[in-house]
Amino acid sequence: MTALGETAPRTPLGRRFGLLMGALLLSSLGNGLCFPFTSIYISQLLGLGGRAAGGYFIAMAAASFAAALAGGPLADRGSPHRVGALGGAALAIGYALLAPADSVALVLASGICVGAGFGLFYASIVGVVDRAVPESGRRAAFAIRHIVNNAGIGLGSVVAGLALHGADTPVGALRWLYLANGLAALPLIAVILGVRPRTRPAPGNRPATAERSEAGPTYRTLLRARPMALLILAQALFAIVGFTQIEATVPLLMHDRMAVTLGWVSTVVAANSFALIALQPLLRRHLERLPETVGLAAGPVLWAIAFGCGLGAALAGETAPAAVRYGLLLAFAVVFAAGELMYSSDFYPLLLRWSGEEAVGRASALASLAWNLGTASGPPIGLFVVAHASAAGSWLALALGAAAAFTVTAALHSRAGK
């Protein structure tokens, strides 16, 4: 960790990391081709009904939960690269199964494969990325991974929109998109296996901890450590009060409560994505000067400021000059992106440091489960707020949610300093 006030030299992240990010971009682009349409595709276009669509997501969630719990110890005992490649293979099979699907059985099988793939992949990808870069490059590497994932999904959504716009039969076009999604995971499998370290330490040179790393700390042991427990709680809160709100709640809030046109809603969302890409190189040197716990705590502070910009736009109202109203909404998008970079550059380095090498897989699995819990509960909470509060009240509630996340990260910083 770089001390505050020092200037951290830029660390080259290397060819292996570049290959990994290229493959991840392609896989994320494949996900972007399909993920907004799955429930519509299953229930309406395939004619299998809402129960089949619900069954798909239930099967996916259950399989993801089980695979993450199993994948963590597997990644710790063996190689995270093998677990990650197995997860990628399950994703490829699962998405490809939706292409010819015409029955509930195939839909459920797809859900199980996709869920298992995500569970295994996210239990191992932290270790895979960490082994591809020098330790001094961790913070930049995980920030770039976050940007690449979002950029790929965004590009995939654009491609899907263009493909469906000119399609005579949406169901036929979507079948090809699901097949393309499955194929897009194949290069990621190859690259994960290709960047695997080829050398192992000689038996006589193994560290003293290696003898007991076969078993490693259990999930319960990890959660008994107060800093790790707070970090996992923070992960769930970041998903609940931050990431799901900008994806699900804020667009609805702008459109339904503030009479913002769909074109401007899209512009604000796009501004957030572009700001992530533009701010990362600008903020990288400053981020690396901060202790990780300080950077992590700064994330929800920036989100609270961003939601305050949204509150200002709501209070300004429709009669305010367009430059003021939309300027505040664009400021929201940019400041929120800065908070995202704080999270992405600091969360996983802390997870790696506090778990230790022998428990990275288990810690990653816990982080994945916390994230899934947050992404499942965040949208309903946000949509409930928008349905029952005014525009200003909704923005204020979002800011209070960010404040709640800050209290956890502040406690984390205090506990880590002891």
Automatic annotation (TrEMBL):
It is found in: Cell membrane. It is a multi-pass membrane protein. The keyword Manganese does not apply. It comes from the Bacteria. The chain crosses the membrane at residues 19-42, 54-71, 83-101, 107-129, 141-164, 176-195, 228-246, 258-282, 294-317, 323-343, 364-386, 392-412. One of its GO terms (cellular component) is plasma membrane. InterPro entries: MFS (IPR011701), MFS_trans_sf (IPR036259), MFS_Transporters (IPR050171). One of its GO terms (molecular function) is transmembrane transporter activity. Pfam families: MFS_1 (PF07690). Its main location: membrane. Keywords: Cell membrane, Membrane, Transmembrane, Transmembrane helix, Transport. This is MFS transporter. It comes from Streptomyces malaysiensis.
